[in-house]
Design brief:
This protein is an alpha/beta fold and about 210 residues long. It is built from 6 helices and 8 strands; from the N terminus they run βββαβαβαβαβαβα. The chain has a single domain, classed as Rossmann fold.
Length: about 210
């Protein structure tokens, strides 16, 4: 397993951010910003960063906030942290058309915020909702997507949740970029209840980046 590293990165303009990253052993295929879940940069996030590096991506998770920190995450918080992290990737030699973003749970919502505000090569959201933070509702921004976006969602027979995802699919399709929304009936929002769905979702994520970051 590729090891992760954590550094405090400071820009010449004074902006600073703690980053956890992993580098591939061979050629770098591109750079991916990994947006963390509600508990901050957890062991699970580090595992994701490491796993993406093993697939050839320079993967980096900005510490937008730390676990237990008071306050709610806003869209501007997400964009500010992502912009600094993208600058770090560019400094590492990643070309602009080989930059992407991915997030799980809260990070999934954050990834959609980025994909509707920044022009990147690709974006992936796995789960996510905005009810516990000051992030916009997904259907309010999906029609404004400016980066190719894949949304992956699980449901456990919740009709309200299913309707929301289907509405999100419809709104995203009205944007001017490539989009796809995949729903896994029987899987919860983290796919813990269905390892098969989790494995397929991982392959879909890799395939989306393979197709759009080249």
């Amino acid at each position: 397993m590729t090891h992760t590293h954590t550094d405090d990165y400071r820009r010449a303009d004074g902006r600073a951010l703690r980053l956890t990253f992993a580098e591939p052993d061979g050629v770098v295929r591109g750079g991916l910003v990994v947006l963390h879940e509600a508990d901050g940069v957890t062991d699970g996030v580090r595992f994701l960063v490491s796993s993406l590096a093993e697939e050839g991506w320079l993967a980096v998770a900005p510490h937008i906030y730390e676990a237990g920190q008071d306050g709610k995450l806003t869209g501007q918080d997400v964009l500010d942290a992502t912009d600094i992290t993208l600058a770090w990737l560019v400094e590492r030699g990643v070309q602009a058309d080989l930059l992407g973003v991915v997030g799980f749970d809260l990070g999934g919502t954050a990834a959609l915020v980025v994909a509707s505000s920044r022009r990147l090569g690709a974006a992936v959201s796995v789960g996510g909702q905005s009810s516990t933070n000051d992030l916009p509702a997904l259907v309010d921004i999906a029609g404004k997507l400016t980066s190719p976006w894949l949304g992956i969602y699980g449901d456990s027979g919740d009709e309200t949740g299913v309707a929301e995802v289907e509405r999100l699919r419809e709104v995203a399709a009205s944007s001017k970029v490539a989009t796809n929304v995949v729903r896994y009936p029987g899987a919860n929002h983290r796919f813990d209840a269905d390892p098969g769905a989790a494995a397929e979702a991982w392959q879909r994520t890799l395939s989306w980046f393979d197709a759009h970051l080249r």
